[in-house]
Amino acid sequence: MKRILVAGIGNIFFGDDAFGCEVAAELAKRPLPDGVKVRDFGIRSYDLAYAMMDDYDATILIDACPRGETPGTIYLIEPEINIEAAKNKLDEGIEEVVNAHSMNPVRALQLVRSLGGKPPELYVVGCEPAVLEREDGEMRLSAIVRAAVTPAVEAIEKLIADLRAGRSAKLSAGKNSCDQTSQPNEII
Questions:
Q1: What is the pLDDT of residues 156-180, one digit of tens each?
Q2: Is 99 a domain residue?
Q3: Residue range 72-94: average pLDDT?
Q4: Is 170 part of a structural domain of the chain?
Q5: Taking all residues of the chain, what is their mean pLDDT, rounded to a whole number?
Q6: Which string of b and e fits 13-41 if b means at least 16 CB within 10 Å?
Q7: Range of the domain at 37
Q8: Which of 60, 117, 125, 127 is 20 to 30 Å apart from 18, CA to CA?
C-alpha cells in the first residue's frame, strides 16, 4: 500500500492563494483510500516539512501557481527531486531555511534535507490564480478559481488512484484543466 500525503498550502488572507486550503478542505470531506492523508498546512512550513518526513511514499502539494495561463487553469507539475544533483540548489538561501510566517515549498524541502530526511516523490497540483490581493479585504476565492476547486479535487482523486496502481501521473484535459509538467531539467 502506497502512503500518500496530500498537502493544501496557501494563505487564506490573499484571495486565490487559498486555493490549496480550499481544495484540501473539499477533498477531506470525501472517502479516501487507506494510507492517504489530507491536511491543510496553510502557511505552516515547519509542519509540512515534518509531515513529509513521516514515511510517505509520495506527497501531493496543492497550491496557487501563477504560470501565465488563463486563471482557473489546473496544472500537474512533477518537479524532479534528485538530492545529489540538487544539493547546490537546495543549499541556496540556506540562511533562512523556513519562515514560520510564510509557506515556501522549496524551503520546506530544504528543512527536510537539513534534518536528514529525503523528500518523497513529489507532485504539485496547482491552479492559475486570478486575484491574490482583494481590495475589499474579504477572504474568498475569485469565481473562476472557485469553479476550479471541484475539478482539482477530482484530478487529485485520479492522481491518487494512478499512484497507488503504479500508473504514471497525468491530469485529464478538459474544462478548467490542462496537462503541464515541469521541464526535465527543472530540479528543485
A1: 999 999 999 888 776 554 444 433 4
A2: yes
A3: 67
A4: no
A5: 79
A6: ebbbbbbbbbbbebbeeeebeeebebbbb
A7: 4-165
A8: 117
